[in-house]
Design a protein that fits this description.
The complex is a heterodimer of chains A (235) and B (292). Chain A has 10 helices and 10 strands. By secondary structure, chain A is an alpha/beta fold. Chain B is mainly alpha-helical and 292 residues long. Classes of the chains: A alpha/beta (235), B mainly alpha (292). The structure holds adenosine-5'-triphosphate (ATP) and magnesium ion. Chain B: GO terms for molecular function: L-isoleucine transmembrane transporter activity; L-leucine transmembrane transporter activity; L-phenylalanine transmembrane transporter activity; L-valine transmembrane transporter activity.
Chain lengths: 235, 292
């Protein structure tokens, strides 16, 4: 579904991704793990069009999206839930969700999908008129995910959805990620919490200082000594 | 009774400041630029209204609409030509450019038609004196005030209920996140300039009808005062610009009523200094919003 071939991405003169190659197949949950500053968010931003690769290809369903404007990439079916949620704090929950469907014209479909989002996240339904900035961190995460789903993505990019959440809520969010996946959306998940990410993922890539250093099936990686030492707390 | 008449004058003047201040505040909200050419868009609007009325022989409402449309296009052109190439430049570069654009418009117009003033015909709107509870108020003031209020209501509707309005608020809060929704940030910024400039154009026509005399440098002082009004209300906040404009108009009128009419222009700047010292975020401003 998504193919990334040997991309280099820069911030000014600083190279953040060095020859990254990866692939995501339809229906998979793929996770990207790596330390702070490894380049995980940079990779997601490159896929969603916020950054342009200097070299290399990004192919989505065989078409190249590697230099396209972010808004046309959303239209093609890739939604990005950015790190830190980035909800529109000055707008209500409902308005945030409406903005998620900004490019859609099918009023009926939008209404149905909004109901689906409220089913998935009942806490948002209770707070429909509340300003997004006054939501708790967990609720903001739910809103950011719901907002992305409103675009009806076929590929959903999630950047550290568990950041700053209590363990119980993290579990809830991960259950919902699985539900979204079962409903037919392909998922690329960036996580610090490697244990948890590997537990729901089909495959994983490990990123270190801008390079993919390891990849494989999630269960293989879970039992690999290297990963255990570096990311799973050493036991 | 004198006092109440002065208050009415102040509110009429204030509604003109408010209409101009809205453009300052909307543009600042979305691109963080103080568009110092905004007062000149107001001036151009005033001239377009003048020619529509005198040359094209139009009445008030069509002249107002033509002025708004011409200014909307003019504002978008200014943004695309002068500001867009500097989107990622330093703020000071953009600010200096804005001052340059302002001088260019003023002197461009003087070059084209000369610096002589014009006078709006005094029969554009009926001039009856209405007697309300013993206070005589001109029907003109009331019409002007109603038009301003209607425009502000339409603006509130556009900003809160329409798709483009929601896009404007989204971009002004977090343009990168807005891009991820599929919002075209460039078009949204253009729309903001169009709306703000249209309001300045309307203010220009209203000003001409109310104060008769117009000339190519007329935008400078009202532009600066409207900027003060925007800061007073809290720059970037739409209701703040409305309240700030009205308040500034009323303060000026009260200063005149108290017999210090020579001070009325100075007062705006005293207000600016006081606000910057004691309430830098403005009346409606929250403390700096934090992004987590
Ligand atoms: N806007 C920017 N300008 C310059 N350098 C940047 C910018 N954003 C990120 N970088 C650098 O690029 C590298 C990769 O950053 P990135 O945000 O992709 O890391 P990450 O893997 O997502 O880390 P984290 O887990 O902390 O979110 C880092 O060295 C970072 O300092
Ligand atoms: Mg990151």
């Amino acid at each position: 579904m998504l193919k990334i071939e040997d991309i280099n991405v820069y911030y000014g003169n600083i190279q953040a991704l060095k020859g990254v190659t990866m692939e995501i197949n339809e229906g998979e949950i793929v996770t990207l793990i790596g330390a702070n500053g490894a380049g995980k968010s940079t990779l997601l931003k490159t896929i969603s069009g916020l950054l342009k690769p200097k070299q290399g290809k990004v192919l989505f369903e065989e078409g190249s999206i590697g230099g396209k404007a972010a808004q046309s990439i959303v239209k093609m079916g890739i939604s990005h839930v950015p790190e830190g949620r980035r909800v529109f704090a000055n707008m209500t929950v409902a308005e945030n969700l409406e903005l998620g469907a900004y490019l859609r014209k099918d009023k009926e479909g939008i209404k149905k999908d909004m109901e689906k989002v409220y089913e998935l996240f009942p806490r948002l339904l209770e707070r429909i008129k509340q300003q997004a900035g006054t939501l708790s961190g967990g609720e903001q995460q739910m809103l950011a995910m719901g907002r992305a789903l409103m675009a009806k993505p076929r590929l959903l990019l999630l950047d550290e959805p568990s950041m700053g959440l209590a363990p119980l809520l993290v579990k809830q969010i991960f259950n919902i990620i699985q539900e979204i996946s079962e409903a037919g959306t392909t998922i690329l998940l960036v996580e610090q919490n490697a244990n948890l990410a590997l537990s729901i993922a089909d495959r994983a890539y490990v990123v270190e200082t801008g390079r993919i250093v390891l990849s494989g099936n999630a269960d293989e990686l879970t039992s690999s000594e290297e990963i255990k030492m570096a990311y799973l707390g050493g036991h | 009774m004198e006092l109440i008449q002065q208050l009415v004058n102040g509110i009429s003047l204030g509604s003109i400041y408010a209409l101009i201040a809205l453009g300052y505040t909307m543009v600042y909200g979305i691109v963080k630029l103080i568009n110092f050419a905004h007062g000149d868009v107001f001036m151009v609007g005033s001239f377009v209204g003048f020619y529509s009325i005198t040359v094209l022989d139009l009445s008030f409402i069509p002249a107002l609409l033509i002025s708004m449309i011409v200014c909307a296009i003019f504002g978008v052109l200014i943004e695309r030509i002068a500001y867009k190439p500097l989107r990622n430049a330093t703020r000071i570069a953009a600010l200096i450019t804005a001052i340059g654009v302002s001088l260019l418009i003023e002197n461009g117009l003087i070059y084209i038609r000369g610096a002589q003033p014009e006078a709006y015909p005094n029969d554009v709107l009926p001039m009856d004196k209405l007697d309300i509870l013993g206070v005589s108020i001109s029907s003109q003031s009331i019409l002007i005030l109603s038009v301003s209020i209607i425009l502000m209501i339409i603006l509130q509707f556009v900003v809160h209920k329409t798709k483009i309005g929601k896009a404007m608020r989204a971009v002004s809060f977090d343009s990168e996140a807005a891009t991820l929704m599929g919002i075209n940030v460039n078009n949204t910024i253009s729309a903001t300039f169009a709306i703000g400039s249209a309001l300045a154009g309307a203010a220009g026509v209203i000003f001409g009808i109310y104060y008769i005399k117009i000339e190519p440098l007329m935008g400078v002082l009202p532009g600066l005062k409207a900027f003060v009004a925007a800061v007073l209300g809290g720059i970037g906040i739409i209701p703040g610009a409305m309240v700030g404009g009205l308040l500034l108009g009323v303060i000026e009128a009260l200063v005149s009523a108290a017999g210090y009419s020579l001070w009325r222009d100075g007062v705006a700047f005293i207000v600016l200094i006081l606000i910057l010292i004691f309430l830098p975020q403005g009346l409606f401003g929250k403390n700096k919003r934090e992004k987590v």
